[in-house]
Design a protein that fits this description.
By secondary structure, the protein is mainly α. It has 19 helices and no strands.
Length: 355
């Protein structure tokens, strides 16, 4: 749970500064100070996870650069690859999403038109930017990231990964989106197979983003009708998690939980597999902690089947209909969480920092 740890420790760092009468600083500078502490302490895996969980847009270059340079200098190849694969995965995902959107509204658009866009003054955070300019910027953003990744690989002599990244660079440069696999898996997706696919790919992957990538690749092998069945089962399980006690759990684990964060939490719970789903949905306190080994957020799981279906057919998946379960939040205040839910707070080391 690197995200929660980083937030907790950044809060502790702020309190330490106050206690020692040091000047106040904004959270960005506190984050940078804590990043450097984690680097010094060799907490690479946790820091990599925090970066890939916190900057899911692929943004945060200023924060990432000193860490990336440290990994290269100290020849931490495995962590360097994990860091940059996560960053590039987010960037390419945004690129393909916006490319699909642009082509659906303007199928005659050409690569030359995209390449010729003037990006002077482009603001990635502005909603007034056109989809065409945004796509052109995202293409450059991915290519720049690949260049940074490539430089590190060259310094650490990873020729095998360099060959792969050269192919990726060429595809991004020419906006060649990966093609769907043929429908080679003839099995019918029911609830048993749904959970088997999730459990199998959670077992063989290092992190949740690798899991999404590998499960998506496998799901491509099924017929479009079976991909829709996967989506229907997912949405059914997602609705079953609309429980007030789970929103409270998410709040305690993440030190806060808004509506979007709870959506991503429910998607993450499903992604952890059948045993985790059963334990968490039933709030089996003696079993909970073992499943929370990463930030419990996975927005990508919400769109996994839809994205695979679109890649497979070239069409958007029509929404599936499932029984809705209205969420009723429990009545509590942040100030009383520790007294209202003492066991949960103890399990996840929650402490109200406001008192």
């Amino acid at each position: 749970m690197s995200y929660g740890k980083f937030l907790d420790e950044s809060g502790d760092l702020t309190k330490w500064r106050d206690k020692n009468n040091l000047p106040k600083q904004n959270y960005e500078k506190t984050f940078e100070d804590l990043r450097d502490i984690w680097i010094k302490d060799g907490r690479y895996s946790e820091l990599t996870s925090f970066i890939n969980e916190n900057w899911d847009s692929g943004n945060g270059d200023d924060f990432v650069k000193p860490y990336s340079e440290h990994l290269i200098k100290n020849r931490e190849l495995s962590q360097f690859k994990k860091l940059w694969k996560g960053i590039l995965r987010h960037r390419t995902s945004n690129l393909w999403r916006d490319l699909d959107y642009l082509k659906s509204n303007n199928p005659q658009i050409t690569l030359v038109e995209i390449q010729s866009q003037n990006l002077k003054g482009f603001n990635q955070f502005s909603s007034s930017e056109s989809t065409l300019r945004r796509l052109a910027w995202e293409r450059e953003f991915v290519l720049t990231g690949i260049d940074e990744y490539r430089q590190g690989l060259e310094e650490m002599n990873d020729n095998s990964e360099l060959e792969k990244i050269e192919r990726l660079y060429n595809d991004i440069d020419n906006l060649i989106k990966p093609k769907a696999k043929p429908s080679s898996d003839k099995r019918k997706i029911d609830e048993t197979l749904f959970w088997k696919l999730i459990d199998d790919y959670r077992t063989i992957t290092d992190d949740k983003f690798d899991f999404i990538e590998k499960l998506s690749s496998k799901l491509e092998e099924f017929k479009p009708s079976e991909i829709r069945k996967f989506e229907r089962i997912f949405r059914t399980k997602y609705e079953e998690l609309n429980l007030g006690q789970l929103w409270t759990l998410a709040y305690i684990v993440r030190r806060g939980c808004g509506d979007d964060a709870f959506d991503y939490f429910k998607a993450w719970v499903i992604s952890k597999g059948q045993n985790a789903f059963n334990s968490i949905s039933k709030m089996q306190l003696n079993e909970l902690k073992q499943y929370f080994d990463e930030d419990p957020q996975l927005e990508e799981m919400l769109y996994l089947a839809e994205n695979v279906y679109e890649l497979k057919t070239g069409e958007f998946m029509t929404p599936v209909r499932v029984k809705k379960n209205k969420l009723k939040k429990l009545n509590w205040a942040e100030e009383t969480l520790e007294t209202d839910f003492p066991e949960l707070c103890k399990i996840f080391e929650y402490e109200n920092k406001s008192h």
